[in-house]
Amino acid sequence: MDTSPSSPLTPNGGGVGGTATAGDATAGVTALYQAHAVGLIRLAIVMLGERTAAEDVVQDAFFGLYRHWDRLTDTANALSYARSAVLNGCRNVLRVRSRPARLEAAAMVGEPVVGESAEAVTLVGEEHQEVLTAIRALPDRQREALVLRYYLDLSEEETARAMGISRGTVKSTTSRAVAALARLLKEDA
């Protein structure tokens, strides 16, 4: 990622220690969005299994980044901030979904439980769908570590920063996730 003084992430040379203005925030967040929104939406889709919720989470993350742009000590960290915000947003959505009372209330009212659209299911091949289903069956931390390391191709250090854990924890969690994923896929075969 280019964060040189002429980079869109440091608008008007407003890098570290510069006074941030609304124009800096607009230009910086816009450039970051254009460069990374699709990847972050993909991350959220893998985490949540639903495109609409994924897009909402990413939009919220970029809005939060815009609101707090002036608090960034280094605009080079903006992508890490956005990625962490997307992961936190996914955790919140998953937490809300897991509340049994909410699902029971939805069933009582006759509301459909949120799921994947027929179009999304059709577009994704059966084998790919099996892998995604297995990934979604993993515990949250394992799923996050696996997606960040292998889907987004982040280093162990970047994954640790995004998840707020140590590098060693990333290694052990990723190892457990791969083993669990192999077991889940073997069971389906």
Explained architecture:
- The protein has helices spanning 22-48, 51-67, 78-97, 100-109, 118-123, 126-137, 140-151, 156-163, 167-188.
- The protein has 189 residues and is mainly alpha-helical.
- The chain has 2 domains: 1-115, no CATH class; 124-189, Winged helix-like DNA-binding domain superfamily/Winged helix DNA-binding domain (Arc Repressor Mutant, subunit A, Orthogonal Bundle), CATH 1.10.10.10.
- The chain has 9 helices and no strands.
- The longest helix is centred in the N-terminal third of the chain and has 27 residues, at 22-48.
Fold blueprint:
Blueprint: H1 22-48, H2 51-67, H3 78-97, H4 100-109, H5 118-123, H6 126-137, H7 140-151, H8 156-163, H9 167-188
Helix pairs in contact: 1-2, 1-3, 2-3, 3-8, 6-9, 7-8, 7-9, 8-9
Secondary-structure-derived class: mainly alpha
Please state the overall shape, judged from the principal axes of the Cα atoms.
globular
Order of helices and strands: HHHHHHHHH
Report low-confidence residues grouped into runs of 5 or more.
1-19, 109-113
**How many separate domains make up the residues?**
2
Number of helices: 9
Distance between the termini: 41 Å
Which terms summarize this structure?
disordered N terminus, Arc Repressor Mutant, subunit A, globular, 189 residues, mainly alpha, 71% helix
Concise synopsis of the structure shown:
The protein has helices at residues 22-48, 51-67, 78-97, 100-109, 118-123, 126-137, 140-151, 156-163, 167-188. The chain has 189 residues and is mostly helical.
